[in-house]
Hints:
heterodimer; A: 345 residues; alpha+beta; Ubiquitin-like (UB roll); Fumarate Reductase Iron-sulfur Protein, Chain B, domain 2; 3 domains; five-stranded mixed beta sheet; two-stranded antiparallel sheet; B: 567 residues; alpha/beta; FAD/NAD(P)-binding domain; Flavocytochrome C3, Chain A, domain 1; Methane Monooxygenase Hydroxylase, Chain G, domain 1; seven-stranded mixed beta sheet; 15 helices; globular
Amino acid sequence: MSDSTIQHHEESRDVTFRVHRFNPQVDSKPYFDDYTIKLEKGITVLRALNYIKEHVDSTVTFRAFCQAGICGSCAMRINRMSKLACTTQVWDELDKTREPGVITIEPLRNLPLIKDLVVEMDPLVGKMKQHSNWVDSKMAEENWGWKEFLISEEEFLTYDKATDCILCASCVSECTILRANKEYVSPAVLLKSYRMNADSRDAIHDQRLAGLVQDHGVWDCTHCYRCQETCVKNIPIMGAIHGIREDAIERRGTKDSSGARHAEAFMDDIEKKGRLVEATLPIRTNGLAWTLRNLLPMAVKMIIKRRTPPPPPLVKASKGIQSLRKELKEMASHVAKDHEKKSGE
Amino acid sequence: MKPFDIVIVGGGGAGLYAAMEAMKTNPGLNIAVLSKIYPNRSHTSAAQGGANAALANKAKDDTVEMHIFDTIKGSDYLADQDAVEVLCSEAPKIIRELDNMGTPWSRMDDNTIAQRPFGGAGRPRCCYCADKTGHTILQTLYEQCLRKGVFFFNEYFALELSVDGSHLRGLIAMNVKTGKVEAFPAKTVIFATGGYAKMYWNRSSNAAGNTGDGQAIAYRAGIPLKDMEFVQFHPTGLRKSGLLVTEGARGEGGYLTNVLGERFMKRYAPEKMELGPRDLVSRSLETEILEGRGFDSPAGKYLHLDLRHLGADIIKSRLPQIREMCMYFEGVDPIDDPVPVRPTAHYSMGGIDTDNFGRTIMDGVYAAGECGCVSVHGANRLGGNSLLDILVFGRIAGRTAAEEASKYNPSPISEAEVAEKEHDLRSFMQPRGHYERYGSLREELGQTLGMNVGIFREASKIRQGIEDIENLIDRFQHVRVSDTGDVYNTNLLQVLELRNMLDLASTVAVGALAREESRGSHTRTDFPVRDDEKWHKHSVYTLEGGYPKLGFKLVTMGRYELQERTY
């Protein structure tokens, strides 16, 4: 069936696409154009955009290539969620619109805009390079090709899902940390880093990990899970982020970085009281001097607004703290056993 | 401006391997990779099934020799036997090399690289990573190129070669992000732009950009193309979209059935059944449809690919992407229902005529992968040999160019030449008489090719096809790019891609008309038999006075004599 002769055998209706427009040569700021076309059920958003470009307005600009959900070119925000246009059904989106019958199409966020729906991908590639998102082989290059590495199915399964990533940057677009800090490593790069660090062929695990625990790195994530929710390949990205953190604490200890110290302070509080002692968290994470220097003005504001957390002595242990401690202890012994098993293998 | 030692056009498997190998051969070289998309988006990523290599991990008695024979037989004896020998004997090494640099191959119980059966192969020798083999290979190569610091010009669209007489000066390309035309003076240029099967448009499994840009540029510069009439139809495209269901689905044990519920392949390939070679299986599906044993639907006639008996576990673990695609694009879950399929244009065996080192007749110009034609696939490519081809010959082309670059001392590309190209592009934006819509030209091209130069061909139909193509070329003169902006002008790109497809379409049709025999993917109903006496030779096309001039080249034979090809 051709794009220009979309036939009407099944249910069909008028659909409006509210498309983000911006041409840096003429526009001072972005705006939206509405395109209303008659569509049949079963059409993807990409085919609708192709139709608009061919028949209504040839200047509408977007990337698209494989049209089969594997190249990652056509990621865009459809009804305020980043996804691939080629695998998104128009009819599914009609159920999610704010205004009936109007589907909003915007470019990915957190990457510089080039035109209409096209964003610059170079910043992402730059971060992949910065974090060595490749296997740096244990085998010298001149010896390549003569012998296979022997790899268990079990190891393969640890990074199988992660290698599904097509770098479409949907997770980058939805990441709440990147919204606040463009230097943040970004979920896709953490996922790739995790995949490389899990690979027994790789020789630079520790070096890569050392880069990931720096500022703007793995500890900056606030577990909002947007990346995982939005992933077009359903990759458990948060699992990878947690994996890197666990690996960092295991190999580099809890005093290694503010992130690790923060995690330790959390754990400590939960164990002792079952709730957080927020007033002293920054001190335990970043030290007294840093806290005074950086958080004093905010503390003053909080006092004025009466939003200060209670001082430590007033944070009483939760009810049932005894049984929580018992459970934590049990968990800790399970983890220890697992580690023994792992190192015994 | 100092010339580049090597300019590689195309960032798929062949281009990236060429870049890596060139850097390895001579780290001091100044190498650039130009790609009209980000390299990790290349169509290599869509190859699902795997790459063949006689590693003998699965079948202990597999040998390189058997792989060579299967490939030659699969090619219907049109492949050059010395080239096939290179392909197959390099295969185990290149698969291990990818393993050594981090490709996540699926594994066997003994932790070696997993292999599975594939069409036309005597042993299970297709190495894979679930059903995302091409994707993981492309990612690995891109990662390694980043590691090595390969210099990428992403989103640059190649326009023409700059040639001084018959001496290469370099390449002229447009920066898509700025619209500026730029010169890339170069000692050597490697074309690795993929195939041209997208000219079948909606009857094609290919990405929108598989428009044969490299082949068209080389052809316009006077470099011959070879065996263009051989276009492979993949038996199992999804009914509605033409998107592909990997041969791996049949490798895992899938059945093809007709409206009577028969496994109809028993009529055509009683021994290999569903795992016959692609040309044969495609013809079998088409015959079933033509003889009225297909299913009917508004989106066209189709047959069933039945995976249900494999069970949910195998489908989920070995064919997860396929399942996803069936659900997205057909609304069918293969665990519960058979998948509606029909043949779809998939692969171009033809391409830029090269020798076994990737060299073309023009000094300093090379080609590799689907863009080139060595030829290792002859009249029909075997599944699992295309990824192998891009890797092996991508690497060889990279090495050859690296070794030969110092021989050349190109004269500079003049500013006037660049300005002229820029002017050409601008002229597309001026009114050009009555208005022709590029979108309908593109569709009509696919339509006439599919109908007249498709799976079953005959003289009168092909003549109609040639007439249609000439007519489309005339009408193209009136196509106007209505987006007049400089920045990221995809309207202009699509028109330039259409021009490339039109240039190549004539060679496909002219070659199909001339070749009065049936061989591999080229099936003439008016000449149903292979005619070795007259046609055991490659077709070669050179552009002369706006038309393809047909010539011929002998097939390099070796150990294997011509035999009838049955499965």
